[in-house]
Design a protein that fits this description.
single chain; about 100 residues; alpha+beta; 3-stranded antiparallel beta sheet; 3 strands
Length: about 100
């Protein structure tokens, strides 16, 4: 028995999703969240990637609202207010902000 479901959609699709969900009286739309994904071949087979990512979130005291993983992607849902700083911190952690 399903007790709850979550959908992550583009803000441009909210109206369409509301139309689809209007048949169900019990739903809420939260547009104060955002998804950040770390993408790369084998990210889940390398436990260091998950460890470093979770450490950045922990150090910044950012609550993980949801997390999904696959062999090539880690996606994390957080409050929207943290996105810009979190992306910068992850870029720094993975040395993606260095100019060559």
């Amino acid at each position: 028995m399903v007790h709850g479901s979550s959908f992550v959609i583009s803000k441009f699709d909210i109206d369409l999703m509301e139309k689809l969900l209007n048949k169900n009286e019990n739903y809420a739309i939260n547009d104060n969240v955002a998804k950040i994904s770390i993408i790369g071949i084998g990210v889940m087979s390398n436990t260091e990637v998950m460890h470093r990512t979770l450490k950045v979130l922990s150090d910044k005291k950012i609550e993980i609202l949801a997390i999904t993983t696959s062999e090539i992607k880690i996606s994390i849902i957080v409050q929207k207010e943290y996105v810009v700083a979190l992306v910068k911190d992850l870029h720094t952690e993975y040395e993606l902000d260095m100019q060559h």
